[in-house]
Amino acid sequence: MPNPNQSIEALTDTDLEASMARILQSPEFVGSARMQDFLSYVVHEAIEGRGDQIRAKTIAQDIYRRSVASDGDSENVVRVDARRLRRKLDKYYATDGLNDAIRIHIDSGGYAPRFEILNVNEAELEASGFNEARNDGVPRTILAALVIVFGVIAVLTAVFWMTSEPTETSKVQNQQEAQRLALREKSYKALQAANYAEEARDLLFPLFDFNRQKQSLTMFRQVIKLDPESFAGYAGAAQSLATLALLSPQNPDKEAFLQDARLMADIAVSKDPTKAWSLSSAAWVAFAEGNEDKAIRLSQKSIALAPRDGHVHDYFGLIALFTGDFPSALDALRPEREFDQPSDRLGRKNVYAAASFHSGLYQQTLNLFDEVAMSGGPISPPRLAYKAAALDALGKTEAAREQVLDLLETWPNARVDQVLLNFFRDPLHANDVNDRLRKLGWTAEN
Predict the structure, then answer these.
(1) How many angstroms separate the CA atoms of 353 and 357, rounded?
(2) CA 193 from centre of chain
(3) Which of 387, 393, 350 is nearest to 372 (CA)?
(4) 328-350: pLDDT as tens digits
(5) Around 66, how many Cα atoms within 13 Å sit in the side-chain half-sphere?
(6) What long-range pairs does 45-49 form, CB within 8 A, spacing at least 24?
(7) Residue 155 pLDDT > 60
(8) Model-level pTM greater than 0.70?
(9) For residues 290 and 274, is the Cβ–Cβ distance under 8 A?
(10) CA-CA distance, 343 to 294, in Å (whole number)?
């Protein structure tokens, strides 16, 4: 164990390896090979002195063996996994790693690890074999005095914070930590189910990706299997199933998806009707069933319950968009909003861009889609369709035709027109895009 007074630079490779090994062997990481590989990779790169060279591109190539040239979505996958890794590290240090002297952080905005040394008390020093001889000859009496001094400072600091007005961020962090500890007390299965639910929730966007929705549904079913009493698995499954129903043509699969979605949403609400996610899932299912009034009412209730939950805002914004309430969609999805429970930032921007188009903000639509592309966001047929329509609306016909050609070459069988008609309650809104596409040379037969 490191000396609590030593500098970060004095940490040995063995110290860092041992700290990482404890994390990888913890219940939080066992069974998640992808997260283990991610953490091992960035820590070893830092140990080798290449921490400043870690990029999403290098992670995609070295860990996932995915080429950025052949797979434009690879960097977005890395960003999603980095968020998962940060959450797992937070949960580890709130539970099994609570007393770890060395902590490994992956700060937002990058992938290089940051190492932190925490102070430890005298008992921990004794247990680790620290004594007079190992403290550069410092007498035990001086060491004990220092421990007492630091202890008094810690107590005074704790008193200060307990008597100070807590910030909203600290309140949320304390609440989340308390929830994780409560789940751990219940069982490790319950804690693991909650972790899976958060991971699966990040897969609900991009909305129009059928395979991604199936993937999230599989994970939510695993959540239900691990903890049948938790509302989260049912709520997430309901949202995936409702989206699959909207993406499906008029056939028996669509009705089967809707029936399952309705069942999952009903169970989620019965498990905990006070959770915003439960009501948000019920709202999305009501929208998929064509019950517009119920969808709006429930989504408004979900926002009232959790005004700082990004996922809840996403579905509120989607329902507002597809029911034609574009001002509400823009307000709910605006990029500068800050959330305690963040969701897929790039997915939200895509939907915000669509709402901008239907509000007549065509240049803003293009700017937003370009920002998503520069950030490594996924490209989809609806995104190209909206870009072409926005360019056409601005009178940039040739550039619009190029987008349509890209759409035809990349997704020759994509029925963008039908997808938009499936989602928008008023076909006039869907045809604001579809009619421009047809004028530019796109046809359903392609």
Answers:
(1) 6
(2) 16
(3) 350
(4) 999 999 988 888 777 778 888 99
(5) 15
(6) 45/112, 46/16, 46/112, 46/113, 46/115, 47/13, 47/16, 47/17
(7) no
(8) no
(9) no
(10) 24
The answer to whether residues 97 and 29 touch, using CB atoms and an 8 Å cutoff, is no
Highest mean pLDDT among 103-107, 144-148, 169-173: 103-107
Q: What confidence score (pLDDT) does residue 195 get?
A: 84
Q: Kindly report the CA angle at 373 between 409 and 108, in degrees rounded to 5?
A: 145
Distance CA 125, CA 159 (A): 25
Amino acid at 159: V
Could you give the CA distance from residue 440 to residue 386 in angstroms, rounded to a whole number?
12
Token duo for residue 147: 């421990």
| Residues belonging to the chain | 446
What's the rounded mean pLDDT across residues 414-420? 93
Measured CA to CA, the distance from residue 283 to residue 259 in angstroms comes to 15
| Mean pLDDT along residues 153-166 | 48
Q: What is the tens place of the pLDDT at every residue in 5-49? A: 445 566 788 888 888 988 998 888 887 878 888 998 999 888 888
How do residues 174-206 score in pLDDT, each as one tens digit?
Answer: 555 555 565 555 577 888 888 889 888 988 988
Select from 198, 217, 209 the least CA-distant residue to 246: 209
Task: Note whether 73 and 344 are within 8 A (CB).
Answer: no
CA atoms within 13 A on the CB side of 415: 9
**C-beta of residue 77 within 8 angstroms of C-beta of residue 65:** no
Higher local confidence (pLDDT), 83 or 172: 83
Give the whole-angstrom CA distance, residue 222 versus residue 204.
15
Tokens of 281: 């899932």
pLDDT higher than 60, residue 4: no
Cis peptide bond upstream of 206, omega within 30: yes
Helices (H), 289-380: 292-305, 310-322, 326-333, 345-358, 362-374
Residues 6+ apart with CB under 8 A from 46: 16, 54, 112, 113, 115
Taking Cα atoms as reference points, which of 19, 46, 40, 35 lies closest to residue 86? 35
Calculate the average pLDDT of the chain: 82
Spatial CA neighbour of 244 closest among 195, 284, 299, 194: 284
Tabulate helix, strand, coil % of the chain (nearest 5).
70, 5, 30
